Amino acid sequence: MIHSWWVPALAIKKDAIPGYINEAWFKIDADKTGVYRGQCAELCGRDHGFMPVVLDVRSREDFDAWLKSQQAAATAALDARRRPAG
Fold first, then answer.
1. Most buried among 7, 8, 51, 67, by the most CB within 10 A?
2. pLDDT tens digits for 41-65?
3. Which domains does the chain have, with CATH numbers?
4. Taking the CB of residue 75, how many other CB atoms lie within 10 A of it?
5. Contact 57/36 with Cβ under 8 angstroms?
6. Contact 38, 52 (CB under 8 A)
């Protein structure tokens, strides 16, 4: 099944083909942070109309803060699993 993810506001369209690794890199101005929505642009099957894609574009500072919070949450979850029961 071939999908083609399309985000019109950022002029990005990239095919997703099973078994192949595809990447799409883009550089965006710092003042264009925000949430950008798109969808699959191929007629890929019965649920084609229900395949949205959402890009959350953040500033470097916001991304670094988000990354630290995710790392802290993952560390806390690992620590909880390592504690003996009881």
1. 7
2. 877 777 777 788 898 888 889 999 9
3. 3-82 (2.60.40.420)
4. 10
5. yes
6. yes
pTM tops 0.70, yes or no: no
Q: Please name which of 23, 22, 29, 2 lies closest in space to residue 10, comparing C-alpha atoms.
A: 29
From the DSSP assignment, how many helices (H) and strands (E) are in the chain?
A: 1, 4
Burial classification of residue 33, based on how many CB atoms lie within 10 Å of its CB (0-12 exposed, 13-18 middle, 19 or more buried): middle
Give the pLDDT confidence score for residue 66 in this predicted structure. 94
Q: Which residue has the tokens 């953040």?
A: 58
